[in-house]
Amino acid sequence: xxxxxxxxxxxxxxxxxxAACRPALLAALLAVLLAFAAGARANGGQVRIAxxxxxxxxxxxxxxxxxxxxxxxxxxxxxxxxxxxxIVEDARIAVVVTTAGGETVGRFPATHEQATNKLxxxxxxxxxxxxxxxxxxxxxxxxxxxxxxFETAVEPAGDQAWWRSWWLWSTLALLQLALIxxxxxxxxxxxxxxxxxxxxxxQRAERAGEG
Length: 211
Fold this sequence. Notes:
The protein is of the alpha+beta class. It has helices at 8-11, 22-37, 166-193, 196-210; strands at residues 46-54, 57-64, 71-80, 92-99, 104-110, 121-127, 131-141, 144-154. It has two domains: 8-34 and 165-210, no CATH class; 41-157, Domain of unknown function DUF4426 (Immunoglobulin-like, Sandwich). Helix content is 30%, strand content 34%.
């Protein structure tokens, strides 16, 4: 008579999330990690202007750090042709910073050389005083030019709320990953290790009945 009890090999096999659930689980984790990472690095950061038509170009502008604080600022520009992923690489771009009162703080060239990702144009410059500023991006390229700008507040240096800390959210994301492993991996293995004794008892009872 064939025993219906699971084999020792099956019992020791760790419990895993159903295969159909794994893609959704991984997608959710990836979405969380991307949300935590958004706006944290140069040539990325907080989106100030998203795919806006400026003359013959489509312009996206990012700033970092997030939030902007007195110190070194990074303004990165992604320049594309409208309706196309094609990057415009031979334009001349400058970032002009003025105070809320209209006083010019500086005019800074944005170049590929300053960018971490060479598809971007980046301008890096110091801004020592907190306050309200107007940042204007001037674009001149082979197909024409234009300007686009936005107003932003610059916070005092080091004035960062705990809930805005990149390290905090990174740590929470890693803890989330560890929790998922424990729920669908490690925890299942420990359960499997406690089963052989019970299974062995049922097998002995079945053999006694057959006898």
